[in-house]
Structure formats: C-alpha cells, structure tokens
Amino acid sequence: MARTLLSILTEDKWVETPLNQSINSAGFSLGYSGNNEQDFIQFLRNNNIANHILIVKPTRAYQSAYNETDLRNFSKIDVIITGSSLREEHIPLIQSSHISGYICSSNINPTVITDLVEQLYRNGYYANEQIPNYLWVNRPKKRQEFAKPIFTPRQTEILEYL
Length: 162
Prior knowledge:
Layout: E1 4-9, H1 13-25, E2 29-34, H2 37-46, E3 51-56, H3 68-71, E4 76-83, H4 91-96, E5 101-104, H5 110-123, H6 133-137, H7 153-161
Parallel strand pairs: 1-2, 1-3, 3-4, 4-5
C-alpha cells in the first residue's frame, strides 16, 4: 500500500482533536489538520506523491473541500464527510457528489480509521451504518491514478535524454 496521509478539515476542535488521536493510534500519518481550506489545498500541492484521505466536516466556508473531482487536480484523494447521523434523504446527494463516504463524528476511533482506509483501497468507497455497502454497490467508484504532470516540449525533450 502506498504512503497514505489522512487529513482533517474542520472548524470544530471537538471533531479535530479525537480524529487526530484516532489517526495516530491507528498508525497512519497525519497530513493537514486545521480549518483553512486554502492551506489544505496548498498542502495537497506540496505533498502530491502520497495518497490522501480527507475527513471534512462541511461548512459554508469550504468551497471545494468536499468535491473529490476538484481536489483530484492537485492529488490522489478520497473525501469522507463527517458530522452527525446522516438523514436518509441525504444519502443520494452524498452518493452523487463524488464523495467516498460518510461517517459520524462520534463513531470515529482507531479501528474505524483502519477499516476506512482498507475499504477505500479495496472498494473505492467507505460503507458503514450511514451508507451501507448495498447502497454503494450500484455506483462503484473507479480508483484514480496519480495526477500526471504536464511538461513543456523542452522539458519532455530533456526527460527523454535522461
């Protein structure tokens, strides 16, 4: 399994602190942890050789932090939204919005973090009591490749010589 960084984007310290502890206890590397979307995107740009999993608690301040399609311009990433229990009418919205899963903040612990990472690598989504596996089966996500750099013709020529 390639190097995986788990990042946290939330304005709520009561969500961020237990997440940090669970990630560390599960033995994974903590990537970005904070509440500034632009700082997070800069972090992705600077660390694009790793696999990223973003756990985000949405707010109106975050414009693209929970759109995997936008974030994949910077890095290989999966986005998991966290919050209180997911209402059933919101499940189709989560599934259609290029998100890899949803998890209740209160359910996060080291075992759940390990399971989350394993499921993302195996299935491309995270199934749990909020969005069970049978609801994901009809819309399996394709795994993404690393972002390919765009080289100028001169850079391509130099790389061919190397």
